[in-house]
Amino acid sequence: MPFETLIWLLPLPPLLAFFLIITFAYRRNSLSHGLAIGAVGLSWLGSMFVFWRALQSEHLAEHPWSAVLNWIPTGDTWFQIGVQADPLTVVTLFFVAWTILMIFIYSVGYHNYGQPRGVHDRPGLPPQGAEVKDAHGHHHRVPSIEPMYARFFALVSLFAFAMYLLVVSDNLLTLYIGWEVMGVCSYLLIGFWYAKESARNAAVKAFLTTRIGDVFMLLGLAALYALTGSLNYRAILGNPQVLEILASTISPVAGLSWAALIGLLLFAGTVGKSAQFPLHVWLPDAMEGPTPVSAMIHAATMVSAGVYLMIRFFPLLSAGWMPGEPLTPPMVAMAFIGAFTALFAATIGLAQRDIKRVLAYSTISQLGYMIAALGIGAYVAATFHLVTHAFFKALLFLASGSVIHGMEHGVYHTDEHVDPQDMFNMGGLRHKMPVTFWTFLVGGLSLAGFPLITAGFWSKDEILTAAFQSNLPVFITLGVAALLTAFYTMRQLTLVFLGQPRTAAAAQAQESRLVMTIPLVVLAIFALAAGWVGIPASFPLVGGILPNWFEAFVGSMLGHVGEADHLIFTPTPLLVSILASLGGLFLGWWVYQSQRDRVQDVLAKPLGGLYRLWQNKYYIDELYQLVFIRPALWVADVFTYHWLDRKIIDGVLHGIGRLGLAIGHGFREFIDRPLINGAGDAVADGTHEVGARLRILQPGRLQVYLLIALVGILIIGLVLFSIGMV
Amino acid sequence: MTWLDAHWLTLILFVPTAGAIILLVLPLRTEKSLRGLALFFSLIPLVLTLALWARFAAAPSVDGFRFVERVDWYSAIGSSYHLGIDGLSLPLVLLTTLLTPLALLASSSIKENLKAYLVLFLLLETGMLGVFLALDLLLFFVFWEVGLVPMYFLISQWGGANRHYAALKFILYTMGGSLGLLLAIQVMGLSSGTFDLVALFQRWPALARLDLPLGLSMSTVKAIAFWAFVIAFAIKVPIWPFHTWLPDAHTEAPTAGSMILAGVLLKLGGYGFIRLVLPLFPNEAQQFAPWLAALAVAAIIFGALGALAQQDFKRLVAYSSINHMGFVVLGVAAAALTWRAVDAQTRLDANLALNGAILQMFNHGLSAAGMFFLVGVIYDRAHTRDLQAFGGLYAILPVYGTMLIFTAMASLGLPGLGGFVSEFLVVRGAWPQLMLATALSMIGLFFTGAYILKALRLVLHGPLNPRWQNVLTDMNTLELVVILPLIGLSLLTGLWPAWILGMINQAIVTFF
Amino acid sequence: MIPLSWYLTFSAVLFSIGLFTVLARRHAIVILMGIELMLNAVNINLLAFWHYWSQVRGAPQVNGMVFVAMVFVLAAAETAVALALIISAYRRHHTVVVDEMTLLKG
């Protein structure tokens, strides 16, 4: 089997698993998760093999492995789709394969496999727990298995397929296919517990918000295909002449070059998918889905896909740009939106109570980091942060799921009706859930950028360094965001794990099962170790001990060694990075160690209106409701349907119909009745009249007739005689 | 050449008619035998079409058409019984012969006057197939009108509450449109001396002088004839603002009638555009293409918005047809604008746009028929179509829910399913020439998502409406037999579009 | 030799009586008899002319005889039909007076 065929095969096992589960295994739980995990296991194995081969091969960036297939006939030629593996693909494959596999395994535990069925469990609602009797005859409430267990694994398998497809594809069209299929899967998975009103609304919101970006992206696809005659990466991005032409021809829109216009259109897709301002609103609501879904969508895959697209199309976005020169329009947009989002989402994250919502806002914020990094041209740094973030954010989500599970256990045990996701109901869980605590700590520190040992530090530091050297406003924004990130991370850690339990349920929480904790440990290892492959050589003390493999590997994608000025060490960004991280962590601990109240946040009073503003997410949902959604519904219902269709168009039609009737009526009243009918009637009446007058000749008596005949004959005879004919 | 080869198309065309006659005269009493026989006669054309597809490439080609049949009909005015098929009509013929048996299977709720219903259905099939197969303008018109009558009766006899209004609106509107078509056909036929399409393709566009005493210049006559054609087809497609008959007719028609109406009858209009308007009026089409594109965009946007406004499930799906068929017209407009351009790149744009438009017709046929069928399934059980009356049905109807989501996604144009390929091709082909229109059509594409999700949200998701608990039953095997071929074909087209695009493309390439 | 004019005069008288009977009498059978009279007047005419014509030609002719025979047959047939009609009319209307049968009155 040629090696390229293996790349083709990577996405297929999960797809196969999806179809098998929905056709054969939709009522069989163990078979369904067996199929799903087996399938992603195969994909994982294949990905690792590709990764291993990639490590050994040289010049992979110039000569990626690729294979193509004729897909759509276009006139005399074909539109080809295909797969390719270059360093960027391989790196993405690596973290995608690991996180997906871990999430799948974790899901078995999260959905309570092996637990009894709950009496009150209904499809479409989260499991409510079941009553069991132990050996001593005591009744216990324990978690119950998810009623739609098989459906979950079917959908996440399809999701995994789409992500693999997106990563291995060698052209924008198949990428878009994976992109959209993921969108639908996320819709179905966010709305997994569809009977919940909040879940179904969140699902629709997620799909429609991302679709706004997607339709722009589709235009970008069309434009790119029309201009270059291809959507293949190598044909466009690997061809400097094409990029040159795209960058130098002017599009009809606002004087932008075609490269800039297409870049902005594609970026719109990313804004939707990677939840950047102003399309970020869907992501926090998407926490309605099961936690593995949150981990999958918000960490490993779907939101990463947006950043991946930007990284992939960096040569186009930056076409015509050289380091040190003014940024291209798409890069300006990215730098601005990314940095703004990073700070903006971090502030909202400060005031959230739901353990998953904090992580959701932190995801938005971190994605903003990556986008901003790309905007200022820090290609490798953005990729690096993408990888490390995928690991530590997947870890954080899964660990938070474990926390929620532990809390649910406490809730079942104590029958106390508290929200198991509200951090203010927790506290002191470090003793109850040690594995979860330590892994959560690793993830949290990595997110906060705890110096030297965590992966997040290295990637974030690299972004800050690049920002410091190229764009000071972006640097300051990102620096403040880093401080806030560390602050809300420590707030979360303190509220959840440190101090004393604030509820009875928290006091009774229990560590999750091995099937859930082992993935946490694996991901925790990556959350630390993933950073070590990208330590800059110029870094004081530790620089150069390990080779900066990441920079060399991914940087080769650009054809030159990544961020040019990296060799010179500048202390300012490093100091800022360390200060922000440690300072934020300290402040977070210092403020929240005193939190005792279950209801009121200690910061709520001192911050006042600002806190409420953050807690309500700057009222953006309400604003959108007012400015976009209501008017759109009004236009649809009142304007289009009732006014345009019913009143105007149907009105015109009915008018024409009435006009026809009126004309017909006119003919009848003024022509048919008086003229045509009148003439006919006159003829009939005349005939009648004559007949009435002549009836005297018809007495009905035989002899009168004969007499008349005789007279007639005589007259005729006389006439003939008189004219001499006889 | 065997007899079968020589009369393949006639056989496909008239087997349903023969079936209708046999059904009419045989003294069958039981419901089962009637349905069985009708199904049998509708399956024969399907089998024949599939066999024809397999032998298509090997068959000799005459003027670009294969399986050509030609017999004198009205030799005095130069009209003949001329049939032929190419890559443009074959997918639509397949769609017709596929949807008719499925629609017959979907008619299990029809109990009264069953025999008449089945006979009308089979006659309808002949009418539709005739339009796709005719290579003579007069013959085309005859079949064009023949299809209307059975549909009128299907709506007015077996339809919903407001059926008489809907049926009358449908037939008057379409007939009104075809009046101009008939006049234009006569002008063209008389001035060219033939009604034969193959000859007309050569003669009519080149005709510089009119032999008829009309007192109008040739360009005026051509423009008038062009608009007569366009309006006739625009009503059928339907293009905004000629669309308001459609929601009424679809909503009131019986389920199977809606399937055929959306699945095939609308395609007659699109087919007319591509088969007749583009080759016969290349200059006029080029001149008026921006107007056509503007109307298409209006259809896309207002169709989607109209669908979003509906509270009736079936009406929502009906409006979605306007939205989707707008893309067909957009593709046609793009192709018209760049018709036979000198530049190879521009020709490719037109080619892609037309490929997309035809594929969009096929895909919409699958997805719209599927959606109407699924609306019928739920209506048969719940006896309501009010979206607000449902809610949370996924919990009690998992199979139905899955099928509905799948079909809805096909309708939404999800990549991986058929609709995406065609929409992408249309957008791609239209973008270079009609940039603004294409960009505006994205608004419609966005709202497509909105109304599809609205329907899913209200029907399947949310808390279960207790009134349906233990009332509704899930889909039965017969219903799965109807929906699965539609879903399967949609999936196949999404994953490997070449199976049908290859057929379409080889016909379109010869256009340019 | 009785001259032709006598025959003709006789026949004219006979015809006039018949005609008068037909026009003036009210009884249907009498009217029928009047008709017979008129037919026979014609017969006399025919025979007279036949005889006269044979003498002029000098050789016996047959056409006159044939005419008369035909008229006889016709008269017989006519009488039969007429009597049947009268009987039928009598049964229906209980009268044979023609003035009382005025169904065709306009």
TrEMBL record, chain A:
Protein name: NADH-quinone oxidoreductase subunit L
PANTHER family: NADH-UBIQUINONE OXIDOREDUCTASE CHAIN 5
Residues of the NADH-Ubiquinone oxidoreductase (complex I) chain 5 N-terminal domain: 71-110
Record keywords: Membrane, Transmembrane, Transmembrane helix
Domain NADH:quinone oxidoreductase/Mrp antiporter transmembrane: residue ranges: 169-484
Transmembrane segment boundaries: 6-26, 33-55, 88-108, 148-167, 173-195, 215-233, 253-272, 293-311, 331-351, 358-380, 386-404, 435-458, 470-490, 520-546, 566-592, 704-725
Native source species: Thermanaerothrix solaris
Compartments (UniProt record): Endomembrane system; Membrane
UniProtKB/TrEMBL annotation, chain B:
Membrane topology: Multi-pass membrane protein
NAD listed as a keyword: yes
EC annotation from Swiss-Prot or TrEMBL: 1.6.5.-
Domain NADH:quinone oxidoreductase/Mrp antiporter transmembrane: 134-443
Molecular function terms, GO-annotated: oxidoreductase activity
Residue ranges constituting the NADH:ubiquinone oxidoreductase chain 4 N-terminal domain according to the UniProt record: 74-124
Keyword Membrane applies: yes
Key words of the record: Membrane, NAD, Oxidoreductase, Translocase, Transmembrane, Transmembrane helix
TM segment ranges: 6-26, 38-58, 88-105, 117-135, 141-158, 170-192, 212-235, 256-276, 288-309, 316-337, 357-379, 391-414, 434-456, 477-499
Cross-referenced Pfam families: Oxidored_q5_N, Proton_antipo_M
Predominant place of localization: membrane
Subcellular location: Endomembrane system; Membrane
Family: Belongs to the complex I subunit 4 family.
Record-linked PANTHER family: NADH-UBIQUINONE OXIDOREDUCTASE CHAIN 4 (PTHR43507)
Protein name per its UniProtKB record: NADH-quinone oxidoreductase subunit M
Source organism per UniProt: Thermanaerothrix solaris
UniProtKB/TrEMBL annotation, chain C:
Origin superkingdom: Bacteria
Bilayer topology annotation: Multi-pass membrane protein
Reactions catalysed according to its record: a quinone + NADH + 5 H(+)(in) = a quinol + NAD(+) + 4 H(+)(out)
Keyword terms: Cell membrane, Membrane, NAD, Oxidoreductase, Quinone, Translocase, Transmembrane, Transmembrane helix, Transport, Ubiquinone
Name of protein: NADH-quinone oxidoreductase subunit K
Family membership: Belongs to the complex I subunit 4L family.
Annotated function: NDH-1 shuttles electrons from NADH, via FMN and iron-sulfur (Fe-S) centers, to quinones in the respiratory chain. The immediate electron acceptor for the enzyme in this species is believed to be ubiquinone. Couples the redox reaction to proton translocation (for every two electrons transferred, four hydrogen ions are translocated across the cytoplasmic membrane), and thus conserves the redox energy in a proton gradient.
GO molecular function, one term: NADH dehydrogenase (quinone) (non-electrogenic) activity
Native species: Thermanaerothrix solaris
This enzyme's EC code(s): 7.1.1.-
EC class of the enzyme, as a word: translocase
Alphabetical list of HAMAP family matching this protein: NDH1_NuoK (MF_01456)
Primary residence: membrane
Gene: nuoK
Lineage summary: Bacteria, Bacillati, Chloroflexota, Anaerolineae, Anaerolineales
Subunit details: NDH-1 is composed of 14 different subunits. Subunits NuoA, H, J, K, L, M, N constitute the membrane sector of the complex.
Residues annotated as transmembrane: 6-23, 30-53, 65-87
